[in-house]
Amino acid sequence: MAREKKAFPLRLDAEIHRAVERWAEDEFRSVNGHIEYLLREALRKAGRLPSGNRPAQPTDPDSASDNAEQP
């Protein structure tokens, strides 16, 4: 089941956008998809992502070590 998406305008510094664009290409994601991924990971690491929205398995190599550090 697809999650509802909320559309909103986002203004970024051109240099930041170029950096995210290159990073997204390296990860085979769209810029929009990569920004969403980065936000989701930041929210997860900060403990601010509701439990129903957490991925079942880590999505990057750093996630495994992050999970080990939590009590």
UniProtKB/TrEMBL annotation:
Polar residues composition-biased segments: 54-71
Named from the GO MF annotations, one term is: DNA binding
GO biological processes: regulation of DNA-templated transcription
Entries under Pfam families matching the protein? Arc
Segments carrying the region annotation (Disordered) are 48-71
Q: Which residues form the Arc-like DNA binding domain?
A: 2-49
Concerning InterPro entries, the annotation shows:
Arc_DNA-bd_dom, Arc_rbn_hlx_hlx, Ribbon_hlx_hlx
What protein name is recorded for this chain? Arc-like DNA binding domain-containing protein
